[in-house]
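Researcher: Here's a chain I'd like modeled. Treat it as a single chain, no partners, no ligands.
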Amino acid sequence: MTRYPSLLLAAVLLAAPACKGKPAQAEGDRPASGEDPGLASGSSLALPVAGEAVRRGDLVLTIATTGQVRSEAVAALKGEVNGTVEDVLVRPGSRVRKGDPIVRLDPRQFDLAVREADAALAEANIRFQGNLASDSILLGPGQEGERRKNALALSGVPAAEVRLEKAKLDRERATITAPFDGVVDRVGISAGERLSPGQDVATVVDMTHLRVEAQVLEHDLPYIRPGGEALISTPASQGTPVHGRITAVLPLVDSTSRAGRVVVSVVAPRHALGPSAALQPGMYADLRLEATRLPNRIIVPARAVIERDGRPLVFVVKGGRAQWVYILPGRSNGSETEVLPDSSTGQIPVAVGDTVLTEGHLTLTHDAPVRVLSAKERADQ
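Model: Modeled as a single isolated chain. Structure tokens:
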């Protein structure tokens, strides 16, 4: 009986630390209205977001339209001589460089034709020498030029030279080559076939030098100028437009559609050749054509501008936190927006080089911890 009080005292001492808990949160310590409880009290949870830098430059106002992508060069190769196809060196989709062989004909008949023409020329030269010697007896001195001209014509040397050149040309044409760098779209012949002049062989398409022919309504045509920029988008471009340049505003306006045509040129990078290219001949594309250029503006991505309580703002990343900044937006071309000076202070609230959020910011609160993803991280997602 005397040891029970000791055991009871020991249990009380062991239980005391376990009873020490976090003090209950007072009513006044709750996060302010609209604040995310998960981000309150200095939480280190950083939300992944995407951002772009504020820049100073020209804001290009554009006209939206559509057009069709075309290649600057499409060559439908045809046979030029009769012969038997010995080898087809490409298949549809093959990339070729200028001068690469595409089809070879059996060379034996062409070699024989060259040899035959060469022998005929040699015979004609012998006749020329004989005619020249005989004419020297019949014609007196002072007529060497006339004598040589007559002897050459009667010998058949000029005609024999032409036949030899033609035979050599036919031998060159026995190998059909690519006329420029490009991609083979179609092959219309097989090894062993008999090829005739004018018969289809293959089609080669220049995938590097492309153009877009766009329709522009007549009331917008006066704003379009050759040399202006163009942004070209297709489903294959995955939201990243291809840059082009307006090269021509064509003179005729269609009387039915009341639209003129504008030609936009674009030089595709070489690695974009092939089926994965963002632009391929025949595609329909959406275009934004430069109409007006506003110089020396402070510009943010249009996606960065959102509204809270009816006021436009952007989130600026400072010290790993997203801080909202109210702005006065100016004109926009759909992808970029200019920021105007504040009407009361006359100052622009964002600076060149500031990172403004463009993704993951729609539900953020002021001063929320964020982590701006790199371009590689966004591409891997």
